[in-house]
## 1
Amino acid sequence: MTLKLIHPSKRRSEHVAAATVERLGSKAVAHVATVERVADARLPTETGEWRIIGFHSLSSAEEFVVLVKGEPRANRASLVRIHSQCLTGDVFGSIKCDCGRQLDAAMKLIEQEGHGAIVYQQQEGRGIGIINKIRAYALQDEGADTIEANERLGFEADMRRYDQCAEILLDLGLRAVRVMSDNPAKIRALRQAGLQVVERVRLEIEPHDLFAGYLKTKKEKMGHLVSVA
Ligand SMILES: [Zn+2]
């Protein structure tokens, strides 16, 4: 791993972040900022008006896109989602997985609520990248499930990390959150970063026969909190 030199102007935000986290109590562990906010603009969408904010990691080449609705406040619990990029589901409407429908449902729910945030984490295919994901899909065409396919390609079942996503939510000013996720690892990461998770909100996703098997695998092999018939 290469170490990045931190520009002096970044040190101030480190101090601010450290001070913020210390006030959150003993559970907080993020003492040094590892992400930086680099761009911020309006984004009118089909579901309404959002802000789109770009962050980059100070410890890797990873970039994050965050959609923010309303004013994030420390004194109210906002709906949040850490959405892992799924090009096939989010953009092409693939029904091999439920990602696109979850993203749509999360945006609509936040829109109704009037405030909330979605951290769009660019870790395609649970961290293996789009080309390897297509290779995994080819193995799935031959009968492997989503976990077996990743493992046969030499990857762990899930290579994602969520600590920087949680740090971004803190940086936005949020302290308490209502999480739209079935993934216990994401919820754990939010708590470990010092965010108070006051509720897990279930997204109403219209079921589809094609991704029923995928959800069953996530439930049985990855401990996701999905209800599968
Ligand atoms: Zn997907």
## 2
Amino acid sequence: MTEVVDLLRRLIRLDTTNPPGNETAAAELLRGYLEAAGVECRLFARVPERANLVARIPGRGDGPSLAFLSHTDVVLATPSEWQRDPFGGDLVGDEVWGRGALDMKGEVAASAVAMATLAREGWRGSGDLVFVAAADEEVGDGFGLQWLVEVAPDAVRTDYAVNEGGGERIVCGDRPVYLCSTGEKMSSPFRLLVYGRSGHASLPGIADNALVKAAGLVARLGEFRAAPQLIPEVDGFFRAVSGEVPAPDELLPAAARLGPAALEVVEPLVALTVSPTKAHASDKRNVIPGSCEITLDIRLLPGQKPEDAEAELRGFLGPGDYDLVNLERSGGTRSPLDGPLWDAVAGFVEQEEPAAVAAPACCPGFTDSHWVREAFGTIAYGFFPARAMDPEVGARLVHSADERVPVSDLELGVRFLRHAAQAVCA
Ligand SMILES: [Zn+2]
């Protein structure tokens, strides 16, 4: 059995379901494994049971530094839905089964093995190679990378980083394409406060029912479509895949012509989206509400700010008895589409599968990458290549039952991470 398979199976058997996390067990396992290969390791923990591991192969010079970013926590598994024990780490045929196999103990194990094998070979780059196995990505309560960036910036600051969130192999037209996530959308929730005048429910004529007014606004928001725009990642995607970049209005039809997988990549990236998800008005059945609160889940494109969403929404809804309040200041983030890490990704794809190309894309969700992009300007990509795993099946298994990863993809991941370290830190 290969080293990466063995390490992944041992990681899966440590239950790091978050909450509560208990990631220290995983950090200690990784420390033992890496120290045996001569890699220096440090644990950082805000509370003892939730440690983050940071390992480093120091560079000989002042070349670019690269981090393998990852998280060791996993989401809840309901054993009755699974065909195997979610914390058994079974090897079934050529797949490793268990919670975290895809998200993301597989990449954790591959990162550790890439680092350990380089260390055993006596490899050192010009810049530092760093491995961060962080706690608390799935919930984000401030025990993981967000906290590390604040309290130990020198331990986790690098020029480049490879993280989860990309690497799927899709087919566009008849060309295989490996997606590299160079940017991310970000949720930026808003509260829509609608004002009226309260009153007794028996006399609707003299009150001003905020819930009824809100209903009209919510119905209109259901029709809202932000104007399509061409962001650099979508421009880069079309350049790589077809060589032709359509106008903003033509993005979706052009993607559809390349097939359903291409449409799935492009669709969330043409505009910000707005989804009303929660409503609250009167607490009493017999009191007409004087105000109503609607929660809006808004997903911003990389580079957009909450102000952009607010301006679009106010323009669409026009003046009225309402207010829009941003609940969380956050925007989508991105990294440039060129440079040594991009070259390492593209070169690796060309070497592994000459008929395929690498193309930029953005996660419609988000990962921990935004913390280092925002704090240090780190150029961070989501890329863990998956050649054997069907991207549709993979997407269904993440955070779901029967999560599993093909052994050949784990080995492909180790080869990519070794290649990235040797290319970027050279
Ligand atoms: Zn993850």
